[in-house]
Amino acid sequence: MNTLIAITGLGVLCLLLEIFNFRKGIIPITIIGLLAILGLTISEYDMPSSHYNNMVVVDNFSVTFSSLFIILTVFLVALSHNFYEFHQTKLSDFIAIKIFLLAGAVAMVSFGNLAMFFLGIEILSIALYVLAASNRLNLKSNEAGMKYFLLGSFASGIILFGICLIYGAIGSFDMRIIQEAAVSADVEEWFYIGGILLSIGLLFKIAAVPFHFWAPDVY
Fold it and tell me: Of the candidates 27, 52, 76, 158, which lies 20 to 30 Å from 14 by C-alpha distance?
């Protein structure tokens, strides 16, 4: 939870730096901030699991993958210097979107509740929609953003429908309760339909065969 709050705060800080015309400090401050957040995240390794009413689960699994995503974001920000040179006025926007994308990714590996899972995947997806369409004067960028947004929204609807069916069958969004109900034989039929729809939506999001047809156009 501390990692999520810190990442979100760093994203807001990037936008504030643009307001105060401190554009030159955005990249160094972002990298330093991400490294500090990485230290904060690693410090929670091997600590007793925190559950925050089971909305966000902080354990070794979530800490490991959150640390990996933070390291990848550091490289993503630090190695994009040539791109930023031609988009100085949009620097804070690009950096902030990448930070919020990281927040969505961290939420996705730390969820203990399907509501938090859906929130994480939507934060990540919306950031990617904006990045895909960020070059507004380029027709291909506009096409990529529109196709990604429409098909991604369609996949999100399938995921949400699956979550609703699971909730209807179990009566809870909590993953522990869902797991306990799944192993028991006494479960409603639409629980399995919800699981299938949820899986289809996720396969669509990661462009897995046979739900990959949108990916070449977007990329």
Answer: 52
For 169-196, write each residue's pLDDT tens digit. Answer: 888 888 888 888 878 767 788 888 998 9
Instruction: Give the pTM.
Output: 0.86
In the chain, domain spans: 1-132, 136-219
Q: What is the CA radius of gyration of the chain?
A: 19
Q: Are 148 and 132 within 8 A, CB to CB?
A: yes
Q: Among 128, 107, 136, which residue's Cα sits nearest to residue 205?
A: 128
Cβ 120 vs Cβ 108: under 8 Å: yes
Residue with tokens 């930070």: 99
> What phi-psi label fits residue 47: left (phi over 0), alpha (psi between -120 and 50 degrees) or beta?
beta
Identify the sign of the CA torsion 115, 121, 124, 126.
negative
Q: What is the residue-wise DSSP string for 10-57?
A: HHHHHHHHHHTT-GGGHHHHHHHHHHHHHHHHHTTTTSPPB-TTTTB-
- Joined tokens for residue 91: 């620097």
